[in-house]
C-alpha cells in the first residue's frame, strides 16, 4: 500500500492507495482562512497525524505528494496558491516519517492518474487541466509527460487572457486562473447571490440546478464559460490533442457547465482548425486523481 497526498489551495486529502490505483481509505480537511495564515504548520501537522494513523492499520511502503506550483526535486520552489517559496517539504516530513517521499505537481499527478486508470486511458495525445483554487495543467504525448527541461512548464493558469486584468498572486495581471478557476467561479457566484465564504460548493451547485433561469446566475455562468473557452481553445490550437480532460472540483459541476463549454468553443469559432464537435471529458477519478497520480 502507498499513501497519496493531495495539497490544494483549499484542502488537504490523504489516502491509502492500492496497487490497482483504488483509494482504500481517505481523510480530508478543508483549509479555512485562519489555517492558510499558518500554512506550513497546517500542512505538516495534518499530514503527519494522518500518515501515522494509517500506518497503524496498513503496511505502507511510500508516500507521494501532489502539490500545486513549481516542483524541483524535493523542493517546492513556488506554490502561488499556497503561499510557499523554497519549501523543503520532503525534508521536513522525513523528520517524523520514516518512509520514502516524493513530490510532483498536482495537475501532472492528476493527469497521470486519469491517463493510467481513468477517463484518458485510451488516448495518446492529451491536454489536461485541473480547475480548483487555481488552474494547473499537463500534456501527455505517447505515454510521456511533456518534458520542458529544468523548469516544469505547463502553467496554464498563468497565461494572460486579459491584458491589464485582475492582479494574480503570481504578480502578473490577467492570468487565466483569475477568471476561469473554480475558486473564481464560486467566489463570483457567492458575491452575486449575497452568500458568505462558508457557503459550500454543493449548495452552489444545488442553486445552479434549481435556479438556472435566475439572471444573476446566468450572468456568472456565461462569464465563466466565456473565459474558460478562450483558455482551452488556445491550448487546443497549440497542441491539437485528441481529448481535453478537466479535473478538480469542476467535475462536480460538469453536468451543468460542460455542455455549455463545448457549445461555446464551437459557436464562437475560437479554433484555428474548425470542427463540428470537440472532445472534452471530466476526470472520472474526481478530486482523488491527484492523490492517486502522486503514487503512479
CATH C-level label of the largest domain: Alpha Beta
CATH architecture of the largest domain: 2-Layer Sandwich
User: What radius of gyration results from the CA coordinates?
Assistant: 19 Å
How far do the termini sit from each other? Answer: 12 Å
Task: Please give the largest β-sheet.
Answer: 5 strands, mixed
Strand order of the largest sheet: 3-2-1-4-8
State the total count of DSSP E strands.
13
CATH superfamily of the largest domain: ATPase, nucleotide binding domain
Helix and strand content put the structural class at alpha/beta
| CATH topology (level 3) name of the largest domain | Nucleotidyltransferase, domain 5
- The average pLDDT is 92
Structural domain tally: 2
Task: Describe the secondary-structure layout.
Elements: E1 2-7, E2 11-17, E3 23-30, H1 33-36, H2 39-55, E4 62-67, E5 70-72, E6 75-79, E7 84-87, H3 89-94, E8 101-105, H4 106-117, E9 125-131, E10 135-141, E11 144-145, H5 177-180, H6 182-193, H7 201-210, H8 215-239, E12 243-248, H9 250-267, E13 280-282, H10 289-293
Parallel strand pairs: 1-4, 4-8, 9-12, 12-13
Antiparallel strand pairs: 1-2, 2-3, 5-6, 6-7, 9-10, 10-11
Amino acid at each position: 500500500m502507498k499513501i497519496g497526498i493531495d495539497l490544494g489551495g483549499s484542502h488537504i486529502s490523504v489516502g491509502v492507495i492500492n496497487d490497482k490505483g483504488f483509494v482504500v481509505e481517505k481523510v480530508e480537511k478543508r483549509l479555512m482562512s485562519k489555517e492558510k495564515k499558518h500554512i506550513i504548520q497546517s500542512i505538516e501537522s495534518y499530514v503527519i497525524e494522518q500518515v501515522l494513523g494509517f500506518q497503524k492499520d496498513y503496511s505502507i511502503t511510500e508516500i507521494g505528494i501532489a502539490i500545486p506550483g513549481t516542483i524541483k526535486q524535493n523542493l517546492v520552489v513556488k506554490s502561488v496558491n499556497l503561499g510557499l517559496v523554497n519549501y523543503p517539504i520532503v525534508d521536513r516530513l522525513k523528520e517524523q516519517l520514516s518512509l520514502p517521499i516524493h513530490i510532483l505537481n498536482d495537475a501532472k499527478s492528476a493527469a497521470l492518474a486519469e491517463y493510467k486508470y481513468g477517463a484518458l486511458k485510451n488516448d495518446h495525445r492529451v491536454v489536461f487541466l485541473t480547475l480548483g483554487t487555481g488552474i494547473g495543467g499537463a500534456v501527455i504525448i505517447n505515454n510521456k509527460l511533456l518534458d520542458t527541461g529544468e523548469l516544469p512548464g505547463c502553467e496554464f493558469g498563468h497565461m494572460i487572457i486579459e491584458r491589464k486584468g485582475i492582479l494574480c498572486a503570481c504578480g502578473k495581471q490577467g492570468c487565466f486562473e483569475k477568471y476561469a478557476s473554480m475558486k473564481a467561479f464560486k467566489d463570483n457566484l457567492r458575491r452575486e447571490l449575497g452568500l458568505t465564504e462558508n457557503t459550500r460548493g454543493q449548495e452552489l451547485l444545488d442553486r445552479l440546478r434549481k435556479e438556472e433561469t435566475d439572471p444573476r446566475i446566468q450572468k456568472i455562468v456565461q462569464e465563466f464559460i466565456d473565459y474558460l473557452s478562450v483558455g482551452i481553445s488556445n491550448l487546443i490550437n497549440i497542441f491539437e490533442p485528441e481529448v481535453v480532460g478537466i479535473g478538480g472540483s469542476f467535475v462536480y459541476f460538469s453536468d451543468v457547465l460542460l455542455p455549455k463549454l463545448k457549445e461555446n468553443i464551437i459557436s464562437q469559432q475560437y479554433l484555428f482548425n474548425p470542427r463540428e464537435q470537440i472532445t472534452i471529458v471530466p476526470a472520472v477519478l474526481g478530486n482523488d486523481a491527484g492523490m492517486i497520480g502522486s503514487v503512479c
